[in-house]
Write a structure and sequence with these properties.
By secondary structure, this protein is mainly α. Helix content is about 65%, strand content about 10%. It contains eleven helices and four strands; from the N terminus they run αβαααααααβββααα. Strand 3 and strand 4 (about 275-280) form a beta hairpin.
Length: about 400
């Protein structure tokens, strides 16, 4: 025990050094590996969706995407028409011509026909991919076979082709609308500004916002969600082999000795770290030293079985928490010992009563007392002895509060 006590004192002295160290390191995964795996995994995902799709699902997906696109384009047409109402006759007519042409093409014109062809072609390509996959019996694991990779790439390109064409046309329309709006003059030279002038800016902003909505709808894929929650990066990074990582790409070190040391580590936008500042406060060194030594002494005393009293009022440097816990522990141990003694006494009283009752039973059930009536003197004396024993033990038998 003496050696253990000395070890505690030495441990407390070691704590006085107050040393703190922080090390942050960043490793980087091979970018070419990430690129190749993203391409592979994206094609595996497309293949799984195509295989699980039923005949007609791809055409239906194209129809749903076109319906969303059509709805948002009609809202854009309404924005154009609202802006045209604020223009003089000539620019209003030019903008109206753009609006009418877009409404017809999205309702019954060429865009509708292109979308129908897109659905038919997507269905044909999907069926071809399903048949080819069944023929080569690929399990959708490992590297994608070269010929299947080409077919999947063609399917993905076809999915984007319609969106690329429509985005190009919409950008051209938007540029024309903004050129018309830029040439509009609502007031004559030198005349006060018309009340409607501020509304043109609001309408223009609304048009730009709706054009962004239309572009977002066009970017949706017919084969699934493209949100960050469905990307392959987390899996690819997690299962990468150790040799693909470049260690120690960035390291940040910080350390402090004695007192209170605050260290600021900043993560940059490129996901690497740097030490931005350190703050050292030595005002607590003496207090910490006193507390560490006192706590080491108290721990050693408690492990030796010596109860320690609560620290005096106003003490600042002693082990208040440890001395208080030692005092509370002594109180709890005393209460536990008292409870155990009372429990043992009750158990002994129950046993004594049982012995008296069981010892009297054979005499009451055998001759000569068996045939005697209850008022027989000998039988009555035996009953009285049992009652007297139970009465003497009643305080212990009835005891409930063992605290």
């Amino acid at each position: 025990m003496r050696h253990l006590f000395l070890a505690l004192i030495m441990a407390g002295a070691a704590l006085l050094a107050g040393c703190g160290q922080l090390r942050v390191a960043v490793s980087v995964l091979d970018p070419q590996y990430v690129h190749n795996e993203v391409v592979e995994e994206s094609q595996r995902k497309v293949y799984r969706k195509i295989v699980l799709a039923k005949p007609g699902d791809m055409a239906a997906a194209v129809d749903r995407k076109f319906a969303d696109y059509q709805r948002e384009v009609l809202v854009l047409v309404q924005r154009y028409e609202g802006l045209a109402k604020k223009f003089p006759p000539e620019p209003a007519a030019a903008l109206g011509e753009i609006s009418d042409g877009l409404r017809k093409s999205i309702s019954t014109g060429s865009i509708v026909g292109n979308a129908s062809e897109e659905g038919t072609e997507a269905e044909r390509q999907a069926q071809e991919i399903r048949a080819f996959g069944a023929r080569i019996q690929w399990s959708c694991r490992g590297e994608v076979p070269a010929e299947l990779r080409e077919k999947l790439a063609a399917f993905q390109a076809r999915d984007k082709e319609f969106a690329v064409v429509q985005q190009r046309d919409l950008r051209a329309l938007g540029a024309s609308v903004r050129q018309i709006a830029a040439r509009v003059t609502l007031t004559a030279p030198g005349a006060p500004a018309a009340p409607a002038a501020p509304n043109i800016a609001a309408e223009t902003q609304a048009i730009k916002a709706q054009e962004a909505v239309v572009a977002a709808v066009l970017q949706r894929s017919i084969i699934g969600d493209a949100s960050i929650a469905h990307t392959e990066y987390a899996y690819i990074v997690a299962q990468a082999r150790e040799h693909l990582w470049a260690p120690n790409y960035n390291q940040a070190f910080a350390s402090g000795t004695m007192g209170n040391v605050d260290i600021v580590i900043r993560m940059n936008s490129t996901a690497d770290f740097s030490v931005k500042g350190m703050l050292f406060d030595a005002s607590k060194v003496a207090q910490v030293a006193s507390k560490v030594m006192t706590q080491a002494l108290l721990i050693g005393a408690q492990m030796s079985g010596v109860p320690t009293a609560t620290a005096s009022t106003g003490t600042q440097n002693s082990g208040d928490a440890l001395s208080k816990s030692s005092s509370e522990l002594s109180v709890l141990e005393a209460a536990l010992a008292k409870r155990q003694a009372l429990s043992d006494a009750q158990r002994d009283a129950i046993r004594s009563a049982a012995r008296v009752i069981l010892g009297s039973a054979p005499a009451l059930e055998q001759e000569p007392l068996k045939a005697k009536l209850a008022d027989d003197a000998a039988r009555k004396a035996l009953h009285q002895s049992i009652d007297a024993t139970i009465a003497a033990l009643r305080p212990l038998l009835a005891m409930q509060d063992l605290q």
